[in-house]
Batch of 4 targets.
Target 1
Amino acid sequence: MTETEISWLPWSKKAFQKAKELDRPILLAISAVWCHWCHVMDQRTYSDRDVAKLIEEKFVPIKVDRDQRPDIDKRYNMGGWPTTAFLTPKGEVLTGATYIPPQEMKPLLQRISHFYKENKDKIKAKLGELEKEEIKAPSVEYGLDHDFFQSVIDGLTLETASSFDSLHGGLGDAPKFPHSEALALALLEYQIQGHKALLNIVTKTLQKMSAGGIYDKEEGGFFRYSTTRDWSVPHYEKMCEDNAKLLVNYLEAYQVTGEDVFEETAHGILSYVNANLSDQDNGGFYGSQDADEEYYKLSLLERRKRTSPRIDTTLYTNWNAMMISAYLLASVVLKNISYRKLALRTVDLLLEKSFSSRKGMYHYYFEGKKHRPGLLTDQASMIRCLTDAYQSTSDRKFLNYAESVAKFMLNNLWNEAGGFYDRPKKAEALGALRTLNKPFDENSIAADAFLRLHYLTGNKKYLETAKTTLEHFGSTYRRYGIMAAAYGLAAELYLRPVQIHIVGPKKDSVTRVFLDESFKVYNPLKVIEILDPAEDTERLTNLKYPITKIPRAYVCFEGTCTSVEDPKEIAKKIEPKGSRKG
């Protein structure tokens, strides 16, 4: 080690043991491979000889990757990346910040080290008191009815409308993020309620984004967010997660409006992901591509003369699951089977490399090894994409895997009071990981996933789990504002599911036409299933559907099922509907 290097340790028992033995505070650095200011902090602050010397002498330095350890990031993030957190040897927070330049870091390190030495007995006593204090669980109202969930959706819709920037599109001010879930909810509510203002929020935002600097006009794909209100100056990293969500936004907007700009932008995202963020041969979507302001300011011709920004080829399960669902939708909306093939290759790859019936889905796969099993974000997203794969292929293996993941979640993450913890409880958990956390956003996705499982299997346990989860967060969703849109989408799926049962042999051409026509029409609340009389006799008996010589479909909405004999008529029955649509 040279005199300017810091001997970073991973988050581990060994690191905490060292802090305890030396009785030193921990310096926890949370960074990400794509994060520009993380690289700057490494190059300027942590490479400063005096800073490095102080850290080595007075702290135990631990470094964590935000993408690889979302559970640690959730508990210690100080408002962005890099996060610089100062902890006690047991892992409790003393103080923290984000980016700290070297000239500020030196006196800060001295102050924190001195403060800890002089006050450690008081700190330990205070923390001991806090540990004894009873943590009050939020009051939960069970048995919430249709009107409650409708009021949630109305409130979120109003929140989105009041946040809308009518000049530049988007929600809120700078820095401006896409807020994909809020746009998805606004589009759905337009279809249900018929308010043109909601459609305008979605179309204007998507148009302004694709015309702005946040969209890469040369290579396609979206940058993470805009530093300006008018979308002109992006933060230049590109993320798998963001592009998956935005791909769905543009595809759904195209389904609803038929406007070319949305189709073209969707093609641009797909083109970028195919070329840069995917393994076309084996399946799998890569995590991110680094920010490089100078590179992205060049034309395509000029860019070819220099090395493109680094791509993180890690396969994150949650982000892959999102992209799989987006690609399956793209194959239908854009009538391109190649997107479906890549999506299904990726599902198979994740099941082969990152699934364990005992430990659930692993969080990421890199260089032949899987890491970090059992996190809620991966289980919930994977169930959602497996139900999409099942609906697309009618291959029961995908539904069986989805039920296996659900079983893991119920056995290892479920809390009887309602909601899922973000990680399995472990006696040896370090620092704030000892605290069980129920993340609102991940629980919203879990509720959505369990609802879809119920509609595809008829298993009431899944419905009860989803409803109890939604009820658990019913008193707290307001504090999240437009960030609660995923909860609103799950609430809509609870209130207004459209179940489409196609009864007929899987290989029958009429059955396939019914399936194709069902997929074409926009409705994110639809759940489609082929029931083959030769394979699904028990399910058909439970649903009380007669078996006929010619395939037919049953569209069920609000307790009423309608028989459809002509595939061309099914679209009319599937469109989102609500009592208030004018």
Target 2
Amino acid sequence: MKKLILSLSVLFVGLCSMAQLDRSVAPEPQPNPPIELNIPDAIEFDNGLQVIVVENHKLPQVSFQLFCDYPISPEGDKSGLSGLFGEMMGAGTTNTPKDAFDSKVDYIGATLATTSRGFYASSLKKHTPILLGLLSEVVTSPAFPEDEFERIKKQTLSGLASSKNDASSISANISNIINYGSDHPYGEVTTEETIENITLDDVKNFYKEKFVPNHSYLIIVGDVTVEEAKGYVNEYFSGWKSGVSSTKMTYNTPTASGSNVYFGARPGAVQSVINITHKVDLKPGHEDIITVRIMNQILGGGSFSARLMSNLREDKAYTYGCYSSMSSDPLMGEFSAGGSFRNEVTDSAVTQILMEISRMVNEQVTDEELSLVKNSMTGSFARSLESPQTIASFALNTVRYNLPRDYYSTYLQRLEKITKEDIQNAAKKYLSPENLNIVIVGNSEIAEKLVQFDSDGSISYKDHYGQEAVSLKQAPEGITVESIIQTYVYKYMMVSSEEELEAKLAKIGMIEVTATAFVEEMGANMTLMTYSGAMNKTASVMSVNTPTGVMAVQREHFNGESGGTFMMGAGKTKYEGDDLEAKKRPNFPVSQRYYLSNPNLEVKLLGIDEMNDKEYYKLQLKEKDSDELSFEYYSVETGLLCYSESIVQDEEGNSFTTLIEFSEYTEIKKGLYMPHKMTINAGEQVLEFNTIKVKVKKKPVAPQFDGDF
């Protein structure tokens, strides 16, 4: 009976409580409690190496991350050295050549990547001894082979050639120099000249001076105990000898005074890359970090609800994306805001970005904005704790930046306390709407519209490396499009007059060229065969030599009246309409001979340009009723065509540039002077074709013109 009475009493109390609950009112959020985080201490070994161990026994895997925390310093006229060094660290060891080294890593199914600061590697626990043996060789006895050095150096130079035409790369170079200064490590720009200055000895000296254990951290994460980790380090890394620690340097950086507009020209671009930026003195672990991150998230930190995205994409439809960032850094951080915009709205986009930056300073954010970002950051932080790599990162930051032990465990509590007043105060402290560097890379036609944003009413023009742009020199009197083309055609055909040219053309009806290139990414040879015949017959086939045979990846043919293309993955396309009419125009033996007689082609002499310390006549080519441009560069010294540059846009308006270099001109039979090397640089893909065979025939007859390959 007592039990029944007690049960009825409890039920009655519960019903009364429910009756008093007002479900129309949302419950008050509870304060964030401190998080119990087990941030491991660093274990220091005799050689100075500090080791951080994060145990996670859910999977039989172990990862090893080495971070060499040497002070960053300027590389001067050898800018790019650290990048080359990072790649060379993965080029084999004195005990295990690169091919054998890579095979051993693949055999155990491990992951290994090297950088200038160390490496990241992981494998199943049972393979840990093998992996550690290889990692020990990497840090104690890297080989630095000469052939790999030359390969990596050549690859780097090809990438630089491509970046000259990449708007984002140009913008980054300009921004870094004006924010930090060219003498600051972050303001240095890597060029072909600085890469050419680097020797293999420089790489070896970098290793000796920078890559030492006494300012390095080894982070071990996974199915491992602290005692096992100590055993690993003693066995595999005790032979890594400590060195002299580098001295930290301090740098003077320029300060923006007023708003300054910097313009990088990119001919033919239909979009402008905008970067509104200034330096920020915000060190890792600073008490303002969380507040600044909230402020940046509201301004343009990545979500569609951010002000920049909402305004410039959702409301104005100026762009696909507009973002902002605010970085902290031991030396000096930076603020950045911008994106890619259509030419015709570039000035309007700058106006709106500047307005949003000023609004952050002059007005408080809304309760809704603050709540949305806080909730997002809380959720993101909570989810990140599911990964043991997060704890490892927390531990590394704690020891590197001397953070309080409870820095991360109290993160959510500090996040929760931030107010709208705090956000506005941070904006006033870290944003400088009156002192900004406004960097724009795009078509020169829009430059004059940007003068209004410069405090002094003038624009500073920059080249692709962030230096003062040098205007094209005017060509000497008497040098015209006609004279440049005639000189090249005569050189190519090895004649000195129109009469000699006509006589030679009567004897040449077809040219067949075979060239090959090695595609490193595929580990295979590529063959390009081209056929050209009087007056406008063409054919080509590009094939790849695979272990199973020769595979054609691209074909083209035209017999003077009809033809088409084939591309692997896209199928066949027939020449029709404007494409067909264009193919019918004369182009043999060199298309330049018919430039001036082509009613649909506009050719201009822009002046004399300089590349790699040599001068070239620069011609601009534009098909009528098309926004796409191409440029040809003819050597002032020899008259030969050395470069061809084409700029095209995709359906979204993004610009892509392909640069082709023609070199190693050589005389062949029948009296033609042709380039025997053609280097195609299309973004990240670089192909170097070397001519191995040239056939010259009297009659333009070949089955390939009809598509019979």
Target 3
Amino acid sequence: MSCTAEKFAFKISRLAEPSRNFNFLAVISLIDPRDDREKIVISNFAGGGVGSLIFVDVATGATEVISFPRDEGAWAVLLHEGRLIVGTCSTAGPGEGGAICALDLKTREWSEPLRRNDITYVWMLTLGSDGMVYGGTCPTGALIRCDPACTRMEDLGNPTGNLENKYCREVHGTVPGFILVTGGFATAFLSAYKIATGEWITLAEADGTHHFNIQEITGDCISVEHESELIRFDARTLQRLPGTGEKSPQGFRMAIQPRLTTRLRDGREAGVRGQEYFIGAVGGGDREFHALPVEPPVTAIRSLALDAGGNVWGSCGFGQTIFRYHPADGTFWNSQVVTERMGEAYGMVFVGGLLFMSCYAGGDHVVYDPAKPWDERGNINPRTLDSLFPQLQRPRAGSVLGPDGGIWTGWSAKYGCYGGGLSRIDPVSFKVTSWLNPVPGQQVMGISCDRQFLYFSTNSGGEGLPVRDEPGWFCIWHPVDGLVGKHPLAPGDAVGKLRAVGGFVLVMEGGGLQRFDGKAGKFTGKIELGAGAFNLVDLGDGKVAAMCGSTIKMVDYVEGVVEGSIELPGIATDAVVSPDGNILFASGTGLFELHRNGR
């Protein structure tokens, strides 16, 4: 670690790894050939670490944990002839995930992973009528095929040939001679791969905002849900059957929501919810919930916030829980699942002792009272106030306490749709108000405020969609009057978050900060950082700390200069200033403190 300016006397301390949680992505049941006992197998994702398969004996609750060869987790788990075949995933991006490998259930040994560097994850696996294993991938949107022993893998191409369809998700091999595939999101599609010839057949295609979901496949009929309506195809000819418009009995299912239940031999249902597994009657009756008798793994940190007492709160990076860390004694606590619909908290704001959260993937607004017992299962505490899904889905910009006392959040639109929005929670009435597309077709990347206005930045990207070559925008928003100012920024994905400080607004753009002078009402130059910044921390006295990957740049924004830089132990994901003026930041699974000027 080094600093290019001597006046920055500093020391970095690793405080703790306070985020500990399970994040269950799949569950199946089987008879374990090792002891002939029925078990449920849970696939657990460990953000920032190595995921695992957790074997739970249905009768006794005895647990065995088997780590994956390397990757963070796996959505795709397939049981076949004494093997568990998994398709792995990672939040790190292409090159760090997307392998297929097989666990021999008798020996508990893994095959050598078959890895594709252009794949982030494998979503689902199925067995074809040819005895081969097929899987859907992201971000290439390709169907892949491998033998059950996982010794070779091949790419069968993008089902539609449209490389902007980055997601090949559901795959089903129960129709002899074909693999049925759904995906998107530039367009939504239902396709069939003809095994004998390698031919792709498009059965249905629509705009990318509504996904096709395969509900049931019988010997005669394929039933597909689209926009909450059923479409049927002949399972032998793949021809569309007459008649449509019937409402799906299952209704609309979020395309990203995994199936987390399985049927046991005695007809009961087993599954997972939050940090627990359950066994009970099919459909949710008489469920018995159990905690796993193993410690949850250390996981990566996404967001940070401070309460009035100086305690550090945070959320897990692709996990569904939050944590609290006590600086006074180094102790920490981790929650149960935040919301029914996954609950990855991006925004965290304290008002009146209550923690308000904005969450992906259900577009949820959540409030939690730390002084009361946790009871999310009854939607009591935390309480999900309202959901913006399906219009808005990811609170990419996070949340701020606005000049009007409301909690404001900036959002991206749902998968397959360009756009974004703003939302406001009234901290007294808990009423949620939202504004769709304040800048048409653009997602909100950052949000900040001063005593009069809210400020937000946008760019032309979208969930599951490529970034377009269109300018981003810096916007000025009055809590009552709405949009009162708008200034163009760089095109593409150059625009990031922003911070209102000392009469200026600093907007992250490419490798620097655009400086907007509030009094002059215009941009007055760019502060070059030499690297893109992920976040800005207000240090007071005309200074900010720009979190640029694994470096903090100390910036005098009044003079418009970078005064020095500090090397960090890893890439910083979020940061806050402690009551004593030090910088608390998250990097990977660690919570760190940067002591400024010898403090």
Target 4
Amino acid sequence: MDRQQTRMTCCLVFCLLVMIPLQATDRDQPLIDTAAASPIEQLFVRRVRPLLAARCGACHGKTAERIEGSLALTDPAGISRAADSGHPAVIPGAPDASPLIRAVRRDDDDFSAMPPKEADRLSEEEIRWLKDWVAGGAPWPDKERIALIQRRFAAAWSAEDGVQVATSGGLSPEWDERSYDPAGLWAYQSVTKPVVPAASPSSTPVDAFLDARRPTGLSVAPLADRRTFLRRLSFDLIGLPPTPAEVQAFTLDPRNDAAAATAVIERLLASPHYGERMAQHWLDVVRYADSAGFANDYERGNAWRYRDYVVRAFNDDKPFDVFVREQIAGDELNPDDPESIIATGFLRMGPWELTGMEVPKIARQRFLDDITNSVGETFLAHSLRCARCHDHKFDPVPTRDYYAIQAVFATTQLAERAAPFLARENTDGFSERQYLTVRLTDYEAELSRIDRLQLNAATGWFSDHEGDRPTWEDAVKKARKKAAAGEVFSAARRQMLDQKIPEDHFPPRHIGLTTTEMKLARTARKGIERLRWSLDRYEPFALAVYSGPTPHLKQVSRPLRLPAKLAGTIEKTCILAGGDPFAPTQAVSPGVLSAARIGSTEIPSTADGRRRAFADWLSHPDNPLTARVIVNRIWLWHFGEPLAGNPNNFGTTGKRPTHPELLDWLADSHQCRIPP
């Protein structure tokens, strides 16, 4: 990128970034005491014990049911007791004779290679730790002494191995004691305004930060000519090429490059196409779709209103913290504002359906898992799904945090809510509704015809069978008053079934129908079902949510509406063993990402207000993640490469920022906030 383009785009970044500064929490300092320990004891506490728990515990001691081969590697008795092989795992002072060492070396035919998978084999360093420990007598201190040793040497070990991070607590003490490379925790640190490096008077701060990290000998690209620069700028901001007239006007503009470019930038930012272009990027992040996915892939008739909300948000320079809060909790913040209701369409972007072939509890859990991970990736650059079944393998994200954040959404229910059309919304083209209505009428007429065939056949059925004619006739009368067109026969049968009347006492399900007519009926019913979703596009409803108890739904075949009276069950969120919704364990309360905890963040346990409180935490001035995440995305959208290499992963496995000072300088509130 040449310096001219960088200088001009710096102006854009200021216009786009509207966010408040973020801070990280202070880390608890390790306690120091005077406990002494031998080098072998230190080795055990520092290396061997965590290694056995992490690499062997799943099969040899995590639970009483998971002790394979009668070998437990959880205490001194376990390592000295004979396993199924007839030998104890460890022979103190004799590493080469110890079955544990022979198994992990994977070169002894008398013992199965451990861990079993080649990809999980221990490193040479890990094997050396085990051998040195066994050679030193295989000491295994009790819990109190382990705790003393940890406190005594924590500071020294942290300097070499990394630092521990305070969280809400993992599923095992070993996970809580894990250390992390401080460099991998950069995203949790507070956003502080860095000093702009010294630069030439003509340089922008962005230039200065880039120049400070430019490798020696690497020169910047030459200035682009005005035509090239205009094309880059136009595609970047509105996704369209400049017109010939615009090219001519810019190339002939007598003002200097900076003044001419600034005028073009302002013109493009004022274009309605600007919001459309930026919305494309955001909608990709949130996985926008006009249909629900899965087998039926029902149309989301009014999803377009969320799409247009995003366009308006960028065109209106909506502050990013407001943008975040509206999408997470617009209905709780401003329940009477159609725009805020529409904004919660973000929570509906994941695939979802509930058919008669689905288990409702599984469908519900799928929604909760999806929204938990989506919020994590979109706003926090954390793939939280990694912690659904176990504490995160690489980041300080315990399983407890995953379900605490999920509990925030445990009272979030799906509904297409009333939201009057806004004057700014484009309802042109709604006349196309008439074509769908014609199709709907045709389907209904076909079902009515088939329904009459079945009712007539049902009358004849009683002439040949000793059925319950009075009850059937009464059921038909009631069905005519309540059932939809073409559904009288089916409704009457349902009434008979509900009354526990034996099925051989009333007409069978497909009476009077040929194979062709059965196929026509199925086609018509499915067509009507799909049109119900499609026709919602033209109604003043928004793809949205509400807060309340989970309704008892068995099947959803048409758009849901906000119930007049909230009924159902307030879900109790628990850690699910293996992520299985039918295997709840410990109960958890609504919470946040504890490694990025801000002060005394409290999420209420009431049905209403959870998402509002969570949105407050996301957009809080001290949150260390949210501003960095959007700054990084905007840089990516404009330059093709992010400052931090993985926009959805600010964890230890993500790429570190190439220009961390520039990232924080852009995320700092004094640089990002636009005056009202």
